[in-house]
Amino acid sequence: MSSTAPVAESPARDSASAASISLKAVDPDLTARARYWKNFVSDPVIAAFIAGGVAGAVSRTVVSPLERLKILFQIQNVGRNEYKMPVHKALAKMWREEGWRGFMAGNGSNCLRIVPYSAVQFGSYNFYKRFFEDTPGADLGPYQRLCCGAFAGMTSVSFTYPLDIVRTRLSVQSASFETLKEAAAQGRNGMFGLMASMYRNEGGVAALYRGIIPTVAGVAPYVGLNFMVYDTMRKFFTHEGQANPDAWGKLAAGASSGAIAQTCTYPFDVLRRRFQINTMKGLGYQYTSISGAIRQIISQEGIAGLYKGIVPNLLKVAPSMAASWLSFEMTRDFFVAMRPEPL
Protein backbone atom coordinates (compact mmCIF):
# COMPACT_ATOMS: atom_id res chain seq x y z
CA MET A 1 0.00 0.00 0.00
CA SER A 2 1.06 3.54 -0.55
CA SER A 3 -0.08 6.66 1.17
CA THR A 4 0.15 10.29 0.17
CA ALA A 5 1.15 12.80 2.80
CA PRO A 6 -0.92 15.98 2.89
CA VAL A 7 0.79 18.97 1.33
CA ALA A 8 1.19 21.91 3.64
CA GLU A 9 -0.17 25.19 2.35
CA SER A 10 2.53 27.82 1.92
CA PRO A 11 2.14 31.26 3.50
CA ALA A 12 2.12 32.82 0.02
CA ARG A 13 -0.70 30.55 -1.10
CA ASP A 14 -2.63 31.27 2.13
CA SER A 15 -2.31 35.02 1.57
CA ALA A 16 -3.36 34.68 -2.10
CA SER A 17 -6.46 32.71 -1.06
CA ALA A 18 -7.25 35.26 1.61
CA ALA A 19 -6.88 38.09 -0.91
CA SER A 20 -9.21 36.27 -3.33
CA ILE A 21 -11.83 35.78 -0.59
CA SER A 22 -11.44 39.44 0.41
CA LEU A 23 -11.94 40.63 -3.19
CA LYS A 24 -15.05 38.49 -3.56
CA ALA A 25 -16.39 39.93 -0.33
CA VAL A 26 -15.83 43.46 -1.62
CA ASP A 27 -17.00 42.73 -5.16
CA PRO A 28 -19.53 39.87 -5.36
CA ASP A 29 -19.69 40.23 -9.17
CA LEU A 30 -16.00 39.29 -9.62
CA THR A 31 -16.73 35.68 -10.51
CA ALA A 32 -19.55 36.67 -12.85
CA ARG A 33 -17.28 39.10 -14.72
CA ALA A 34 -14.50 36.50 -14.96
CA ARG A 35 -16.95 33.99 -16.41
CA TYR A 36 -18.21 36.60 -18.88
CA TRP A 37 -14.70 37.34 -20.23
CA LYS A 38 -13.80 33.66 -20.37
CA ASN A 39 -16.98 32.99 -22.33
CA PHE A 40 -16.20 35.94 -24.60
CA VAL A 41 -12.61 34.98 -25.53
CA SER A 42 -13.51 31.28 -25.87
CA ASP A 43 -16.22 31.97 -28.45
CA PRO A 44 -15.05 30.27 -31.69
CA VAL A 45 -15.10 33.49 -33.73
CA ILE A 46 -13.31 35.60 -31.09
CA ALA A 47 -10.76 32.85 -30.33
CA ALA A 48 -10.07 32.50 -34.06
CA PHE A 49 -9.73 36.30 -34.38
CA ILE A 50 -7.11 36.52 -31.60
CA ALA A 51 -5.28 33.38 -32.74
CA GLY A 52 -5.25 34.65 -36.33
CA GLY A 53 -3.48 37.84 -35.26
CA VAL A 54 -0.83 35.87 -33.40
CA ALA A 55 -0.40 33.49 -36.34
CA GLY A 56 0.07 36.37 -38.78
CA ALA A 57 2.80 38.07 -36.74
CA VAL A 58 4.71 34.83 -36.17
CA SER A 59 4.52 33.60 -39.76
CA ARG A 60 5.58 36.84 -41.45
CA THR A 61 8.47 37.64 -39.13
CA VAL A 62 9.94 34.16 -39.64
CA VAL A 63 10.21 34.66 -43.41
CA SER A 64 10.65 38.45 -43.69
CA PRO A 65 13.86 38.37 -45.85
CA LEU A 66 12.29 36.03 -48.41
CA GLU A 67 9.06 38.05 -48.43
CA ARG A 68 10.99 41.22 -49.28
CA LEU A 69 13.11 39.45 -51.91
CA LYS A 70 9.96 38.13 -53.57
CA ILE A 71 8.61 41.67 -53.91
CA LEU A 72 11.91 42.96 -55.36
CA PHE A 73 11.86 40.18 -57.97
CA GLN A 74 8.22 40.88 -58.81
CA ILE A 75 8.71 44.57 -59.60
CA GLN A 76 11.80 44.08 -61.81
CA ASN A 77 10.61 44.39 -65.37
CA VAL A 78 12.54 43.52 -68.51
CA GLY A 79 16.02 45.05 -68.68
CA ARG A 80 16.43 45.32 -64.91
CA ASN A 81 18.58 42.74 -63.18
CA GLU A 82 19.77 44.30 -59.92
CA TYR A 83 18.55 41.21 -58.05
CA LYS A 84 19.37 37.91 -59.74
CA MET A 85 18.80 34.24 -59.12
CA PRO A 86 19.81 32.05 -57.36
CA VAL A 87 18.08 33.13 -54.18
CA HIS A 88 21.10 32.90 -51.90
CA LYS A 89 23.06 35.34 -54.08
CA ALA A 90 20.21 37.84 -54.08
CA LEU A 91 19.96 37.54 -50.30
CA ALA A 92 23.73 38.01 -50.02
CA LYS A 93 23.47 41.21 -52.11
CA MET A 94 20.70 42.48 -49.84
CA TRP A 95 22.81 41.69 -46.77
CA ARG A 96 25.97 43.37 -48.16
CA GLU A 97 24.17 46.57 -49.12
CA GLU A 98 21.63 46.92 -46.31
CA GLY A 99 22.51 44.44 -43.58
CA TRP A 100 19.96 43.16 -41.09
CA ARG A 101 17.78 46.22 -41.69
CA GLY A 102 17.50 45.19 -45.33
CA PHE A 103 16.28 41.75 -44.33
CA MET A 104 13.64 43.30 -42.10
CA ALA A 105 12.75 46.30 -44.31
CA GLY A 106 8.99 46.69 -44.38
CA ASN A 107 8.46 44.00 -41.73
CA GLY A 108 7.17 46.45 -39.12
CA SER A 109 4.48 47.75 -41.46
CA ASN A 110 3.95 44.19 -42.67
CA CYS A 111 3.21 43.02 -39.13
CA LEU A 112 0.96 46.03 -38.54
CA ARG A 113 -0.91 44.91 -41.64
CA ILE A 114 -0.79 41.15 -41.21
CA VAL A 115 -1.98 41.06 -37.59
CA PRO A 116 -5.39 42.65 -38.34
CA TYR A 117 -5.45 40.97 -41.79
CA SER A 118 -4.90 37.50 -40.39
CA ALA A 119 -7.17 38.16 -37.41
CA VAL A 120 -10.04 39.28 -39.66
CA GLN A 121 -9.40 36.40 -42.06
CA PHE A 122 -9.56 33.62 -39.47
CA GLY A 123 -12.33 35.32 -37.49
CA SER A 124 -14.53 35.96 -40.52
CA TYR A 125 -13.92 32.40 -41.78
CA ASN A 126 -15.39 31.07 -38.55
CA PHE A 127 -18.24 33.58 -38.89
CA TYR A 128 -19.06 32.54 -42.47
CA LYS A 129 -18.88 28.87 -41.50
CA ARG A 130 -22.15 29.26 -39.63
CA PHE A 131 -23.97 29.98 -42.89
CA PHE A 132 -22.62 26.84 -44.57
CA GLU A 133 -23.01 24.30 -41.74
CA ASP A 134 -25.83 21.80 -42.14
CA THR A 135 -26.14 21.74 -38.35
CA PRO A 136 -24.34 23.91 -35.76
CA GLY A 137 -20.77 22.66 -35.36
CA ALA A 138 -20.98 20.25 -38.31
CA ASP A 139 -17.85 19.67 -40.39
CA LEU A 140 -17.68 21.42 -43.77
CA GLY A 141 -17.03 19.78 -47.09
CA PRO A 142 -14.15 20.86 -49.40
CA TYR A 143 -16.25 23.22 -51.54
CA GLN A 144 -17.88 24.78 -48.49
CA ARG A 145 -14.42 25.49 -47.06
CA LEU A 146 -13.37 26.94 -50.41
CA CYS A 147 -16.33 29.35 -50.38
CA CYS A 148 -15.87 30.35 -46.72
CA GLY A 149 -12.18 30.94 -47.30
CA ALA A 150 -12.86 33.06 -50.40
CA PHE A 151 -15.31 35.28 -48.49
CA ALA A 152 -12.87 35.53 -45.57
CA GLY A 153 -10.05 36.54 -47.93
CA MET A 154 -12.13 39.29 -49.55
CA THR A 155 -13.22 40.59 -46.15
CA SER A 156 -9.72 40.73 -44.69
CA VAL A 157 -8.07 42.37 -47.70
CA SER A 158 -10.79 45.03 -47.92
CA PHE A 159 -10.16 46.05 -44.30
CA THR A 160 -6.37 46.20 -44.48
CA TYR A 161 -5.41 47.03 -48.08
CA PRO A 162 -3.94 50.54 -47.46
CA LEU A 163 -1.45 48.99 -45.03
CA ASP A 164 -0.45 46.47 -47.70
CA ILE A 165 0.26 49.05 -50.38
CA VAL A 166 2.37 51.09 -47.95
CA ARG A 167 4.28 47.95 -46.92
CA THR A 168 5.11 47.30 -50.60
CA ARG A 169 6.39 50.86 -51.06
CA LEU A 170 8.57 50.60 -47.95
CA SER A 171 9.97 47.25 -49.09
CA VAL A 172 10.94 48.69 -52.48
CA GLN A 173 12.26 52.16 -51.75
CA SER A 174 15.53 51.22 -50.01
CA ALA A 175 16.47 48.61 -52.62
CA SER A 176 19.28 49.34 -55.07
CA PHE A 177 17.10 50.52 -57.94
CA GLU A 178 18.91 53.59 -59.22
CA THR A 179 15.81 55.67 -59.91
CA LEU A 180 13.95 55.29 -56.62
CA LYS A 181 15.67 58.04 -54.65
CA GLU A 182 12.53 60.19 -54.65
CA ALA A 183 10.47 57.33 -53.25
CA ALA A 184 13.08 56.69 -50.59
CA ALA A 185 12.91 60.33 -49.51
CA GLN A 186 9.11 60.08 -49.20
CA GLY A 187 9.38 57.00 -47.04
CA ARG A 188 11.69 58.53 -44.44
CA ASN A 189 8.63 59.76 -42.58
CA GLY A 190 7.62 56.17 -41.89
CA MET A 191 4.54 54.16 -42.71
CA PHE A 192 1.90 56.72 -41.78
CA GLY A 193 3.92 59.57 -43.31
CA LEU A 194 4.10 57.67 -46.59
CA MET A 195 0.37 56.91 -46.40
CA ALA A 196 -0.40 60.62 -45.90
CA SER A 197 1.91 61.54 -48.79
CA MET A 198 0.15 59.08 -51.12
CA TYR A 199 -3.23 60.41 -50.05
CA ARG A 200 -2.23 64.05 -50.73
CA ASN A 201 -0.24 63.59 -53.93
CA GLU A 202 -1.60 60.52 -55.72
CA GLY A 203 -5.38 60.77 -55.69
CA GLY A 204 -6.78 60.49 -52.18
CA VAL A 205 -8.45 57.28 -50.99
CA ALA A 206 -8.23 55.77 -54.49
CA ALA A 207 -4.41 55.90 -54.21
CA LEU A 208 -4.53 53.78 -51.05
CA TYR A 209 -6.62 51.15 -52.84
CA ARG A 210 -4.68 51.08 -56.12
CA GLY A 211 -4.39 47.49 -57.32
CA ILE A 212 -7.16 46.14 -55.10
CA ILE A 213 -9.04 44.47 -57.99
CA PRO A 214 -6.21 42.06 -58.97
CA THR A 215 -5.52 41.67 -55.25
CA VAL A 216 -9.07 40.52 -54.48
CA ALA A 217 -9.06 38.37 -57.64
CA GLY A 218 -5.98 36.58 -56.31
CA VAL A 219 -6.70 36.59 -52.58
CA ALA A 220 -10.19 35.06 -52.79
CA PRO A 221 -9.11 31.81 -54.51
CA TYR A 222 -5.82 31.75 -52.59
CA VAL A 223 -7.42 31.88 -49.15
CA GLY A 224 -10.20 29.53 -50.24
CA LEU A 225 -7.69 26.97 -51.54
CA ASN A 226 -5.58 27.44 -48.42
CA PHE A 227 -8.41 26.50 -46.07
CA MET A 228 -9.67 23.70 -48.31
CA VAL A 229 -6.25 22.08 -48.89
CA TYR A 230 -5.21 22.49 -45.24
CA ASP A 231 -8.24 20.56 -44.04
CA THR A 232 -7.60 17.80 -46.58
CA MET A 233 -3.90 17.53 -45.74
CA ARG A 234 -4.65 17.74 -42.02
CA LYS A 235 -6.71 14.55 -42.32
CA PHE A 236 -3.96 12.94 -44.40
CA PHE A 237 -1.37 13.57 -41.67
CA THR A 238 -3.64 12.37 -38.85
CA HIS A 239 -2.51 8.91 -37.77
CA GLU A 240 -5.01 6.16 -37.11
CA GLY A 241 -6.47 6.38 -33.63
CA GLN A 242 -5.80 10.13 -33.31
CA ALA A 243 -8.43 12.86 -33.38
CA ASN A 244 -5.95 15.47 -34.66
CA PRO A 245 -2.49 15.41 -36.22
CA ASP A 246 0.55 16.06 -34.03
CA ALA A 247 2.57 19.27 -34.33
CA TRP A 248 4.68 17.90 -37.20
CA GLY A 249 1.52 16.87 -39.05
CA LYS A 250 0.07 20.36 -38.67
CA LEU A 251 3.33 21.89 -39.91
CA ALA A 252 3.34 19.59 -42.95
CA ALA A 253 -0.34 20.29 -43.71
CA GLY A 254 0.23 24.05 -43.45
CA ALA A 255 3.29 23.96 -45.68
CA SER A 256 1.44 21.89 -48.32
CA SER A 257 -1.65 24.10 -48.35
CA GLY A 258 0.39 27.30 -48.68
CA ALA A 259 2.57 25.98 -51.51
CA ILE A 260 -0.38 24.66 -53.55
CA ALA A 261 -2.54 27.77 -53.07
CA GLN A 262 0.28 30.18 -53.88
CA THR A 263 1.35 28.34 -57.04
CA CYS A 264 -2.22 28.37 -58.39
CA THR A 265 -2.80 32.08 -57.79
CA TYR A 266 0.70 33.59 -58.11
CA PRO A 267 0.17 35.69 -61.31
CA PHE A 268 -2.46 37.73 -59.42
CA ASP A 269 0.16 38.51 -56.78
CA VAL A 270 2.58 39.84 -59.42
CA LEU A 271 -0.17 42.07 -60.84
CA ARG A 272 -1.01 43.26 -57.35
CA ARG A 273 2.57 44.39 -56.68
CA ARG A 274 2.98 46.02 -60.08
CA PHE A 275 -0.19 48.09 -59.67
CA GLN A 276 0.72 49.07 -56.11
CA ILE A 277 3.87 50.84 -57.38
CA ASN A 278 2.46 51.81 -60.78
CA THR A 279 2.86 55.54 -60.09
CA MET A 280 6.44 55.31 -58.82
CA LYS A 281 8.85 56.83 -61.32
CA GLY A 282 11.79 54.95 -62.78
CA LEU A 283 10.49 51.39 -62.96
CA GLY A 284 9.67 51.47 -66.67
CA TYR A 285 5.95 50.72 -66.69
CA GLN A 286 2.68 52.62 -66.35
CA TYR A 287 -0.23 50.20 -66.63
CA THR A 288 -3.73 51.49 -67.36
CA SER A 289 -5.74 48.26 -67.00
CA ILE A 290 -5.38 44.68 -65.79
CA SER A 291 -5.75 43.20 -69.28
CA GLY A 292 -3.25 45.73 -70.64
CA ALA A 293 -0.80 44.89 -67.86
CA ILE A 294 -1.07 41.16 -68.61
CA ARG A 295 -0.50 41.72 -72.34
CA GLN A 296 2.47 44.02 -71.70
CA ILE A 297 4.12 41.65 -69.22
CA ILE A 298 3.71 38.64 -71.51
CA SER A 299 4.91 40.54 -74.62
CA GLN A 300 7.98 42.00 -72.88
CA GLU A 301 8.83 39.34 -70.29
CA GLY A 302 7.04 36.21 -71.48
CA ILE A 303 4.83 33.94 -69.39
CA ALA A 304 7.69 33.74 -66.90
CA GLY A 305 7.05 37.43 -66.15
CA LEU A 306 3.81 36.44 -64.39
CA TYR A 307 5.80 34.10 -62.14
CA LYS A 308 8.70 36.39 -61.23
CA GLY A 309 9.74 35.81 -57.65
CA ILE A 310 7.94 32.49 -57.31
CA VAL A 311 11.09 30.65 -56.17
CA PRO A 312 11.75 32.81 -53.08
CA ASN A 313 7.99 32.88 -52.60
CA LEU A 314 7.73 29.09 -52.44
CA LEU A 315 10.80 28.97 -50.19
CA LYS A 316 9.06 31.32 -47.77
CA VAL A 317 5.42 30.23 -48.11
CA ALA A 318 5.98 26.70 -46.82
CA PRO A 319 7.56 27.70 -43.47
CA SER A 320 5.30 30.76 -43.29
CA MET A 321 2.04 28.83 -43.61
CA ALA A 322 3.34 25.98 -41.46
CA ALA A 323 4.15 28.45 -38.66
CA SER A 324 0.87 30.27 -39.23
CA TRP A 325 -1.39 27.21 -38.94
CA LEU A 326 0.49 25.72 -36.01
CA SER A 327 0.53 28.95 -33.98
CA PHE A 328 -3.11 29.58 -34.91
CA GLU A 329 -4.29 26.18 -33.70
CA MET A 330 -2.26 26.34 -30.49
CA THR A 331 -3.50 29.84 -29.63
CA ARG A 332 -7.11 29.09 -30.58
CA ASP A 333 -7.16 25.87 -28.55
CA PHE A 334 -5.76 27.78 -25.57
CA PHE A 335 -8.60 30.30 -25.62
CA VAL A 336 -11.32 27.75 -26.40
CA ALA A 337 -10.14 25.68 -23.40
CA MET A 338 -10.83 28.70 -21.17
CA ARG A 339 -14.62 28.27 -21.56
CA PRO A 340 -15.98 27.74 -18.02
CA GLU A 341 -18.13 24.78 -17.08
CA PRO A 342 -21.88 25.47 -17.00
CA LEU A 343 -23.18 26.45 -13.56
Automatic annotation (TrEMBL):
Subcellular location: Mitochondrion inner membrane
Keywords, ordered alphabetically: Calcium, Membrane, Metal-binding, Mitochondrion, Mitochondrion inner membrane, Repeat, Transmembrane, Transmembrane helix, Transport
Major location (coarse): mitochondrion
SUPFAM superfamilies: Mitochondrial carrier (SSF103506)
GO cellular component annotations of the record: mitochondrial inner membrane
Membrane topology: Multi-pass membrane protein
Keyword ATP-binding appears in the UniProt entry: no
UniProt GO molecular function: metal ion binding
Renumbered ranges of Solcar repeats: 43-131, 140-236, 245-334
Pfam families the UniProt entry points to: Mito_carr
Family of the protein in this entry: Belongs to the mitochondrial carrier (TC 2.A.29) family.
Reported function: Mitochondrial transporter that mediates uptake of thiamine pyrophosphate (ThPP) into mitochondria.
Protein name: Mitochondrial thiamine pyrophosphate carrier 1
Taxonomic classification: Eukaryota, Fungi, Dikarya, Ascomycota, Pezizomycotina
